[in-house]
TrEMBL record:
Keywords: Cell cycle, Cell division, DNA condensation, Mitosis, Nucleus. Pfam families: Cnd1. This is Condensin-2 complex subunit D3. GO terms for cellular component: condensed chromosome, centromeric region; condensin complex; nucleus.
Length: 457
């Protein structure tokens, strides 16, 4: 929900200003019983609950959990996600008996794997908060989490392993096993959430199974499995090529694999080349998007390992899918802002060229001016001269435009030639319009020195 972040920001400001009093809480709670306003009321209450937990009626929270948890299904999730958020934020204020009761009921709900991922995520987060409220030490908290997390991980491992074993027993003529998409989605998503809370109990076999599932592909979907298992043990699970595995499940598997990688540096080292290959070859936007998100997440934890592959991620700024382009722009801007990656190679020129993308232009300008330029006021001045060489495709200068590019990258981002003159001028004008007068004056001398000399040679 795109507007939720604004609600979150508003409640944060109200809390700082002391405007979230008991009367407002009671007024919002009164609207949760009325269907036309129920969803909006629970959404607002969920955002407010972290600031007003002591003002919440604990009986109200408990009764609504009892009422709505009994009717949850794959199709009906509202307002259960919001109720779970309220429970987690108010956990310390609930009676111990109520907390233990809700903990057991939430675990029982998760054990069915009959609720959608959005509920699974909220439920696991809430369980973590309840466990934290019931324990007094880090060791006690981890033991409480492991108490329900480990059995759930084991169930996921058994289910995902069964997909492989059942498929290996099927004859090729049968076309493999048809997967229950919803069920498989629940188990795969749960693995990614659970492994974060209990990494020490995430077995190597479970990781291997998730690897091997990425060998699967649905016949006729046009996607050849580029992923290859990373261990000799994987040969035991090689019967997967006949398993019917849809692009959406494949995309989800990469997210799950990424969460597993965040807990295992050695696994990350082995997986990154395969992720990059998938980013370059997958015909499905959802898969490319998820792989790109995983790589950017890994860049935070393992910057040195991901840094050589940043050019491959930057190519997604020219992806045919607007979702992938926008997501790439957002994540790269965040990584640069937080200093996880640097303006090396062609990254700056890839980034600045998004100003020519009419669907991204406004957002790209916001990222460049209000996020990145604000952090490094000399950024445009430092790169302007090389922009002239790069966007004109001049590669004979001894210093500028000397970084490596693949033929595909050159073709995707090329702005050389008279047909792209207006586009180059748009970029130059933008850069100059955000420089100081002293910088523009210095550029005059630098352009004469660097560009003029090349023209005379």
């Amino acid at each position: 929900m795109d507007l939720r972040r604004y609600v979150r920001r508003a409640t944060e400001l109200w809390a700082k200003q002391g405007k979230l009093g008991g009367a407002l809480v009671r007024a919002v709670c009164s609207h949760t019983a009325h269907l036309p306003h129920q969803k909006a009321a629970w959404t607002l209450l969920a955002e407010m609950s972290q600031y007003v937990a002591p003002s919440l009626d604990t009986n109200f929270v408990y009764d609504n959990w009892k009422q709505h948890s009994s009717v949850v299904s794959m199709e009906t999730t509202a307002p259960l996600v919001q109720i779970l958020t309220v429970i987690g934020n108010a956990a310390k204020n609930l009676a111990k008996v109520a907390r233990e009761d809700m903990r057991d009921e939430i675990v029982s709900m998760l054990e069915t794997f009959k609720v959608p991922p959005v509920v699974i995520q909220a439920a696991i987060t809430t369980l973590s908060q309840i466990c934290e409220s019931l324990t007094r030490s880090r060791e006690g908290y981890q033991a409480a989490v492991d108490n329900w997390c480990v059995p759930l991980l084991k169930k996921c491992e058994l289910y995902l392993t069964s997909l492989i074993e059942d498929n290996s027993q099927s004859s090729l003529s049968e076309g493999g096993r048809e997967i229950d998409e919803r069920e498989a989605t629940c188990y795969l998503f749960a693995v990614g959430e659970l492994c974060r809370l209990s990494p020490a109990h995430t077995s190597s076999h479970l990781t291997l199974v998730v690897h091997s599932l990425l060998l699967a592909t649905r016949e006729g979907d046009g996607e050849k499995p580029s992923f290859r298992s990373l261990s000799s043990q994987s040969s035991q699970l090689s019967g997967l090529t006949n398993l019917s595995f849809s692009p959406s499940l494949r995309a989800l598997s990469y997210l799950t694999l990424g969460k597993l990688c965040l807990q295992d540096e050695e696994l990350t080292k082995q997986v990154i080349p395969q992720l990059v290959r998938e980013l370059q070859t997958s015909p499905h936007a959802a898969t490319r998007n998820n792989v790109m998100v995983v790589l950017c997440d890994l860049a935070v934890r393992y910057s040195v390992k991901v840094d050589p592959h940043i050019p491959s991620i930057a190519v997604c700024l020219r992806d045919e899918s607007l979702l992938v382009r926008r997501q790439t722009l957002t994540l790269l801007a965040s990584l640069i802002q937080e200093d996880y990656i640097k303006w090396k190679g062609a990254l700056f020129f890839r980034f600045i060229s998004t100003l020519l993308d009419e669907e991204l232009r406004v957002f790209a300008e916001f990222c460049l001016v209000h996020i990145l330029l604000a952090r490094n006021p000399n950024m445009f001045f430092q790169h302007f001269v090389e922009c002239v060489f790069h966007f004109n495709g001049y590669e004979k200068h001894r210093v500028y435009n000397r970084f490596r590019q693949t033929d595909r990258e050159r073709e995707l981002f090329s702005l050389k030639g008279s047909k792209h003159r207006d586009q180059r001028m748009r970029l130059y004008s933008f850069l100059l319009s955000h420089m100081t007068d002293p910088h523009r004056f210095q550029l005059t001398a630098k352009l004469c020195q660097e560009v003029g000399v090349c023209m005379c040679v």
